[in-house]
């Protein structure tokens, strides 16, 4: 008689826990990136009234007789299935499409979250406005390169920072006329162009093409190349020759008026590029500028050579930034330069169900979660980043209301067992009357 009471009392307690879990899930139906909890029950040990016996002679074996002693709470597991994404229009709001977690720095070390509600702190770092914890990742070097083998650190958005890009490549197009003859004085064609140094200051350079005697067999139309830097002081232009490697001083054209590549098997002396070495005197870093002449022809039309592109930029300040699918924070500067400032880190776990909930949408490692495996978004199922979106709760309200009914009916059924057991005990007590 007492076994039924004990079993029912334990069941009441556990169904109350079941209802507590359901209530917490429903309460967090609109919590960003909340993951549903799921209750599992297991039976308690059974009391063996009679042991099993093996077959003997003409008698078959008999099964054991066992009476269950009730049920117990088996586990409360976290369901980490992907929640739906909702657009917020705020580019610092980030959502993960995959299995990864953001890494944030807490007072006692790193903790983890799926909540990508972020903002810019007073120091320019990416922070969670709800907790004040900074998002972690890797900072890019001066060339915008990311080294994900380095230790994690905070990511800063340096608003107001000025940045220039020194010119390293210039592309030319045009024609050096095949009708230009070798004369005295020599036929000379010039082309001026601007390049930027590392400080964003523009310098004027000049290429000088001089018609010289044809060389090779068959003879190739040949032009020598010189380069000068032009400076204007008090209205007077000064031309300073620039050094170029000896093998890069000649450009030649074949019978079809096409530039000869020294690797093409013809007796040319030049690949379609030359390198100019510049030593600036204004404090800027020296540079080697590659001049691409591959689009120049040697046809019979008039001579005209001009630059079409160069990759340098004047000084500009950071005006905005964006986060791409791979977690790269790309700064947009007022001079048109886009440069990687850093990259968000994501982590995953062998057993995410072993993580400990810390409140405030945070998780911490446990002995059963495994160690965090840090990496870049898009690697090894960590997931991609969706900027301007947040992940919603994965609570299924229909399922939770069904579970509420199940918990309620289980509680009611076990309370009836207690009532019935009490009535039986009452009848037993009344036998003495």
Q: Which properties best describe this structure?
A:
433 residues, mainly beta, Tick-borne Encephalitis virus Glycoprotein, domain 1, 3 domains, twelve-stranded antiparallel β-sheet, five-stranded antiparallel β-sheet, 31 strands
In short:
By secondary structure, the protein is mainly beta.
Task: Describe the 3D structure.
- The protein is mostly beta strands and 433 residues long.
- It folds into 3 domains: 2-47 and 66-80 and 394-430, no CATH class; 95-159 and 319-384, no CATH class; 167-311, Tick-borne Encephalitis virus Glycoprotein, domain 1, CATH 2.60.98.
- It has helices at 2-27, 397-430; strands at residues 37-43, 46-50, 65-68, 71-78, 85-87, 94-97, 101-106, 109-113, 119-120, 126-127, 134-139, 153-154, 162-165, 169-175, 188-196, 202-215, 220-233, 236-241, 250-253, 273-278, 287-297, 304-310, 313-323, 328-333, 338-344, 346-348, 356-359, 362-364, 373-375, 384-387, 389-391.
- Strands 7, 8, 11, 12, 13, 23, 24, 25, 26, 27, 28 and 29 form a 12-stranded antiparallel sheet that branches. Strands 15, 16, 17, 18 and 19 form a 5-stranded antiparallel sheet that branches.
- A hairpin with a 5-residue loop joins strand 15 (188-196) and strand 16 (202-215).
- Helix 1 packs antiparallel against helix 2 (397-430).
- The chain starts with a helix and ends with a helix.
- The model is unreliable at 265-269 (pLDDT under 50).
């Amino acid at each position: 008689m007492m076994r039924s009471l004990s079993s029912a009392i334990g069941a009441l307690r556990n169904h109350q826990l079941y209802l507590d879990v359901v209530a917490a899930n429903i309460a967090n139906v609109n919590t960003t990136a909340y993951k549903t909890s799921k209750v599992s029950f297991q039976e308690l040990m059974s009391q063996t009234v009679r042991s099993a016996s093996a077959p003997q002679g003409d008698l078959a074996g008999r099964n054991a007789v066992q009476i269950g002693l009730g049920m117990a709470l088996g586990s409360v597991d976290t369901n980490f299935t992907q929640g739906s994404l909702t657009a917020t229009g705020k580019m610092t709001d980030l959502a993960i499409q995959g299995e990864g977690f953001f890494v944030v720095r807490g007072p006692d070390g790193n903790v983890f979250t799926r909540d990508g509600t972020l903002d810019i702190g007073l120091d320019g770092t990416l922070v969670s406005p709800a907790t004040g914890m900074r998002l972690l990742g890797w900072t890019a070097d001066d060339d915008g390169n990311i080294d994900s083998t380095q230790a994690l650190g905070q990511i800063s958005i340096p608003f107001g920072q000025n940045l220039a890009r020194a010119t390293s490549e210039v592309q030319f197009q045009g024609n050096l006329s095949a009708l230009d003859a070798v004369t005295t004085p020599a036929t000379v064609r010039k082309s001026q162009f601007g390049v930027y140094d590392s400080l964003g200051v523009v310098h004027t350079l000049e290429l000088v093409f001089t018609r010289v005697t044809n060389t090779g067999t068959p003879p190739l139309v040949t032009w020598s190349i010189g380069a000068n830097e032009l400076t204007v002081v008090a209205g007077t232009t000064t031309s300073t020759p620039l050094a170029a490697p000896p093998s890069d001083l000649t450009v030649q054209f074949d019978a079809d008026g096409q530039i000869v590549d020294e690797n093409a098997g013809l007796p040319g002396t030049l690949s379609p590029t030359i390198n100019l070495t510049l030593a600036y005197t204004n404090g800027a870093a020296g540079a080697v500028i590659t001049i691409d002449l591959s689009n120049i022809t040697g046809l019979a039309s008039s001579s005209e050579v001009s630059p079409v592109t160069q990759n340098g930029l004047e000084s500009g300040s950071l005006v905005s930034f964006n986060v791409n699918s791979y977690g790269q924070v790309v700064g947009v500067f007022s001079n048109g330069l886009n440069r990687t400032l850093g990259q968000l880190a994501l982590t995953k776990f062998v057993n995410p169900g072993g993580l400990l909930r810390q409140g405030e949408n945070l998780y911490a490692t446990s002995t059963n979660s495994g160690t965090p495996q840090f990496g870049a978004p898009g690697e090894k199922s960590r997931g991609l980043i969706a900027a301007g979106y947040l992940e919603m709760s994965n609570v299924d309200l229909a399922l939770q209301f069904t579970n509420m009914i199940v918990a309620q009916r289980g509680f009611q059924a076990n309370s009836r067992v207690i009532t019935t057991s009490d009535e039986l005990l009452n009848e037993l007590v009344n036998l003495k009357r």
